[in-house]
Amino acid sequence: MDPMTSGPDPTPATARARRVSRRIGAIAESATLKVDAKAKSLKADGRPVIGFGAGEPDFPTPSYIVEAAIAACRDPRNHRYTPAGGLPELKQAIAAKTRRDSGFEVDPAQVLVTNGGKQAIYAAFAVMLDPGDEVIVPAPYWTTYPEAIQLAGGVAVEVLADETQDYKVTVEQLEAARTERTKVLLFVSPSNPTGAVYTADEIRAIGRWVEDNQLWVLTDEIYEHLVYDGVDTGSMPVLCPFLADNCVIVNGVAKTYAMTGWRVGWMIGPADLVKAATNLQSHATSNVANVAQRAAIAAVSGDLTAVEEMKAAFDRRRRTMVEMLNQIDGVVCPTPQGAFYAYPSVKGLLGRPIAAAGGVVARSSAELAELILERAEVAVVPGEAFGSPGYLRLSYALGDDELVEGVSRMQKLFA
Length: 415
Hints:
By secondary structure, the chain is α/β, with parallel strands linked by helices. Helices cover 41% and strands 13% of the residues. The strands form four sheets. It has a seven-stranded mixed sheet with strand order 2-8-7-6-5-3-4, with helices on both faces.
């Protein structure tokens, strides 16, 4: 066909019109960060918003860690590239910390230092999954997990556990979700968003199921030190040593040491997987910022005194929040045993007129969260973000006075 007389070829125009790739266009914005950003924006405009959205300790990073970073800034060694997989000193310190805190023996070669826990999660899925491989994802789940699986070409298969089972999935549910394409189980304890903690016996039962079906397991241990009420729990590869060669651990300094902004996480796994993930990181980001790595060495090598002090405050706030939320008619809030989140069911508030809001009716937890922000100036994250509509997630990692004021506003709104 003569290009001078024919109509334009639609293919190039169509390609230009699709400015964002389908792969990236299918990813949703982080719901928790979106809520936190909106709360901060409203605060900047002068509104007295109280934010329960972000999973971020309100404590400053302990001073000995900050001092280590200051010293690192002055050292010219840290002004240059370092190994993509992490400073050797930090990998050694992470291995020692893992042995100390969970009893799991790992070699530094099994450690990859990443730009926060999120990168570790993505890297783990990227090296484990081929297109179409399925990952069983217990729900409610942290909003990033399904997106990271999708980015890696995998398929997230959700298994829902509600408040009647303390937000913990059973082996029977996992087996019902397993198919020929199942390759990985995602296991998170303590849980974000629910605060659920699996007992040692529950972990062993799930571990045996994983082994029987020759699966991999990715276990996120970022909240390992925030367990309350003396729950008998532990690390999956320690309680189930037969899984050590098929287990990837994700962790980091963010929650334990109040270092969310420092962006240091890590992945621990079999040496071949860690080597593959290191190769990926060498092209994606190179090394994590050296000053942050030096601070992380101080964090994981130090004692847990500051951690225990923060945990005591979280425990106090946990009890206060649960008690106050359960005083609201229509709200059912189980007591979380880990992390720093409450995950109340608000199904009893849906579909009924809210007198303090002029009789407005919220039909979903997403609509309810919007209403709470507009009418009570309190930011919460709706359950839709975590794969379980009908719930709200509230972080109690904020000051005691703010916590009481925020939940009091919700009590007044729904009185």
